[in-house]
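Q: How would the structure tokens look for this protein?
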Amino acid sequence: KLTKEVDFVGGSQPPKSKFIYEPKDGYIRLIQIRDYKSENHVVYIPKASTKKFCESDDIMIGRYGSPVFQILRGIKGAYNVALMKAKPKIKELNKDYLYWFLSNPSIQKYIVGISQRSAGQSGVNKKALEEYDIFLPHSPNKNASSPNLMLSSNG
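A: Here is the predicted structure in token form.
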């Protein structure tokens, strides 16, 4: 199950009144889903106002919006409540492989289908995501990230 191998960590944000629109000492970029498509709405928040940070190689998941369950990466900063970070718990599961796995059409179709039906709202069904089976790379190089790897179930 994904929950055994991956932590899904939700984001946070201060009130909008704390947002500024130019970089400043003591502030950090607040990443929103729309930032992965455009640099037109960049905002910054006091760094001390959050403990939810990501690196540019971290795997971020869009929890809401259209489409739901977007798999994103490439921006460093703090992340808001509409995003969650997929953080591998074990060293055998590297970020490139996890990114490929979460982008795979099988899990995409399953999670998007379930999420759009949950409680009449469009948002990632975190419980369904956590219960999804993950297949780890079966290779002498456990950190291999190619989608062409032979895969084996993790039980």
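The first strand starts at residue 6 and ends at 10.

Confidence is low (pLDDT under 50) at residues 144-155.

Upvote if useful.
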